[in-house]
């Protein structure tokens, strides 16, 4: 990324906790390449965040390559954007400590994701699960990012990053830019195909609930066919009363560009089976080019590692200046020519 000072900085990350879901794609990843010309974009595979839930080391390593390849296949251009793996830039962890000293325990225990994940993994409520949003604040503030494209579920964490930045600035003087979360108008929360009041999640144990970007045509069509809808038989966009049908319509809208009105007209008088088939086909067609590109990139490990190395170098260089400023502000002794 050639830094253009007039452009705002965008930062976003994704965990290598599994194959990306259609939710990750629509709510986040799909939008990232679209910002590359208007902003200075910085994107990361946030492997350190993944450790908040127990990971098998070999699987984590494999998934990190896969996640990186998927971001490239989705259209992130390493010539335009910085793309790197979080653990390859130690500055995130260094800034994390400073920010951790500027956040309150009560603020962290109030986070919805902490409550959800503690309930889901009662055997492993580790310190990282609680302090995850501080590391996420460090991810964002290490680059003074102004814009953070995320799905709705992550908005609360960006809000906390703002509060931490504001607090730091008021204690130590103007240092951080206030980050702002942005989410797509449609698809900021893609729901589970089996429980449409719950978000679609990588780690859902019900395999029919989640479309994975690595799913083949048959799997995608089968999962949509089994999607839970309702019993009134009418194809109408109404999130509150018809969450399953509305979720399908949202996905169809994203892949075809048709408005909800147009979709209602298209399927007027038809059964849910027809809608499910059409949504499945639209997703299959939409994902096919990405999947082809993904397989090609993933098979070229030398290329992947080259891009990772280059991205890590750029990310370190960029964030070092911000960390130096923070260290100066908090009163750490700075040695010349270190
Ligand atoms: N269902 C979703 N709809 C829209 N956006 C979503 N995102 C996640 N799920 C949906 C967005 O994807 C980005 C990356 O997410 P993440 O890797 O940080 O993990 P997550 O939010 O915890 O996603 P998962 O799939 O639910 O992972 P697990 O199961 O490992 O916890 C974020 O911008 C997120 O908003």
Gist?
This protein is mainly alpha-helical. Helix content is 51%, strand content 7%.
Would you give an account of this structure?
This protein is mainly alpha-helical and 338 residues long. The chain folds into two domains: 205 residues, Rossmann fold (3-Layer(aba) Sandwich); 89 residues, Tyrosyl-Transfer RNA Synthetase (Orthogonal Bundle), CATH 1.10.240. The protein is 51% helix and 7% strand. The chain is built from 13 helices and five strands. Strands 1-2-3 form a three-stranded parallel sheet. A two-stranded parallel sheet has the order 4-5. Helix 4 packs across helix 7 and helix 7 crosses helix 8. The longest helix is centred in the last third of the chain and has 30 residues. The radius of gyration is 21 Å and the shape is globular.
In CATH terms, what is the architecture of the largest domain?
3-Layer(aba) Sandwich
CATH superfamily assignment of the largest domain? HUPs
- Count of separate structural domains: 2
- Give the topology string: H per helix, E per strand: EHEHHEHHHHEHEHHHHH
> Helix- and strand-based class?
mainly alpha
Percent strand equals 5-15%
Q: Could you please say which CATH topology of the largest domain applies here?
A: Rossmann fold
